[in-house]
Design a protein that fits this description.
heterodimer; A: mainly alpha; B: 6-stranded mixed beta sheet; 4-stranded antiparallel beta sheet; 9 helices; 40% helix
Chain lengths: 215, 243
């Protein structure tokens, strides 16, 4: 019974945290998707300079922990005159970090499209970009979507790393309540449940995509 | 309309075409035959720039084929290609496949492209399949859609790269029938094929290629019925009487 009473007390604050979690997740999802698509298209462009640049960026991003990237954006960038709010830095950091994984997923999807498709498009006079847009990318999307759903779930959970640069999202709000009330069990059970609740729609979405893909 | 002079092609250090000279005039049907690995398909793929070539020249209406020049796009709209494995776009319906080139490459109005696309599908016997997806069709039907897709570009010539080699034997006839109709309508065609009967009955000329050179060429009846070169004789004997 105490759990319910405490929950009633903490939930409004935790909901504020959840709202920030959603903002961080959605923001970095959009950013990482857009950036990842850019890296992937550069990688398959067939232009050595762009392909190499993309490979370097991806490996650089993969080699830096997300936390370090966040620290860099939030604590180091102001030294060179680029200051941003914790939320902005969180979205930017997670978005950039995840763009590497998005990109590898997109590239795998693009390369999985049968080369005969590219030849058919070329043979009817399509240029490189039209071939991508009309023929390759629509087919790559189907291949890419199930893993994309998994990345979404990982991003939702990794958004908690933004707490390290003071973004008061769900995990940080939980920790703050727990330190001030000592109700560790109640608070972190609630926090875990709330992450789960946010994950469920994503999990269902992934399952739906996988079923559709298997057809 | 197609002039090939001294065509050479290397894959790495391996020379697959060792100086091919050939020409195709308007309305002509030319079959290219020969053992696998002889370079037949490579010639076809060079003609519309899917492969670059290492030496010699290819001209279409006097315009040089070079897939590094922007002019290649215009050339490809004039010379369509039908592939061994059909290469229809699986995410689009049959009719969408057929109008894709006219609408998105040539900028034709959608309505007129659709009207012509339907006529073309009817002409290859697939009027009732326009809203099906390629995966729902048999190989023979897919290849006929591919022929309709090539025709939709209103090309001056069509290149066929072993169009029946990926088909079950009982489906070959439908595709060859559609190609024969095209030939009779005066379409310029270059066909890489193992269908000797088609070559004999439909082709005006036959080129026999082996080891990257044209070993023998001439009117189809001459090459196929009275081959002069021992390599041609040997190849035909093995194709026509495999047992």
């Amino acid at each position: 019974m105490q759990f319910i009473e405490h929950s009633r007390e903490y939930l409004p604050i935790l909901m504020q945290g959840a709202w920030l979690t959603i903002q961080v997740t959605l923001g970095s999802l959009l950013l990482s998707t857009a950036l990842g698509l850019v890296w992937a298209v550069m990688r398959v462009s067939g232009i050595p300079f762009l392909a190499n640049l993309s490979a370097i960026v991806i490996n650089l991003l993969r080699g830096i922990p997300i936390i370090v990237l966040l620290f860099f954006l939030y604590f180091v960038m102001p030294d060179v005159g680029i200051a941003m709010t914790a939320l902005q830095a969180g979205i930017l950091g997670l978005g950039i970090a995840y763009s590497a994984y998005q990109s590898e997923n997109f590239r795998a999807g693009i390369e999985a499209v049968d080369h005969g498709q590219v030849e058919a498009a070329r043979a009817m006079g399509m240029g490189w970009w039209m071939t991508m847009r009309r023929v390759v990318l629509p087919q790559a999307v189907k291949i890419v979507l199930p893993p994309y759903g998994n990345i979404m779930i990982m991003m939702l959970k990794d958004s908690s790393q933004a707490s390290t640069i003071t973004v008061a999202e769900l995990a940080l709000q939980g920790k703050l309540i727990a330190t001030s009330t000592f109700q560790n069990a109640t608070v972190f059970t609630l926090v875990a449940l709330m992450y789960l609740v946010m994950c469920v729609p994503l999990i269902l979405f992934v399952r739906h995509l996988e079923k559709r893909g298997a057809r | 309309m197609i002039e090939i002079r001294g065509l050479q092609k290397f894959f790495g250090s391996n020379q697959v075409l060792k100086g091919i000279d050939a020409s195709v005039t308007k309305g002509e049907v030319v079959c290219i035959i020969g053992p696998s690995g002889s370079g037949k398909s490579t010639i076809l793929r060079c003609i519309n720039g899917l492969e670059s070539y290492s030496g010699g020249s290819i001209e279409i209406h006097g315009q040089r084929v070079d897939n590094k020049l922007p002019s290649i796009k215009a050339i490809r709209t004039e010379v369509a290609m039908v592939f061994q494995r059909f290469n229809l776009f699986p995410h689009r319906t049959v009719l969408e496949n057929v109008i894709e080139g006219p609408v998105y490459v040539k900028g034709e109005a959608r309505a007129s492209a659709i009207a012509r696309g339907k006529e073309l599908l009817a002409s290859v016997g697939l009027a009732d399949k326009e809203s099906a997806h390629p995966a729902q069709l048999s190989g023979g039907q897919q290849q006929r859609v591919a022929i309709a897709r090539a025709l939709a570009m209103q090309p001056e010539a069509i290149l066929f790269d072993e169009p029946t080699s990926a088909l079950d034997p009982e489906l070959v006839g439908d595709v060859l029938g559609a190609m024969r109709k095209l030939a009779e309508a005066g379409m310029t065609m270059v066909v890489v094929t193992h269908e000797m009967q088609f070559a004999r009955e439909v082709a005006d000329r036959v080129l026999f290629i082996d080891g990257g050179v044209i070993v023998e060429q001439g009117p189809s009846a001459d090459v196929l019925n009275r081959p002069q070169n021992p390599r041609t004789q040997d190849f035909l004997r093995r194709v026509l009487h495999p047992l």
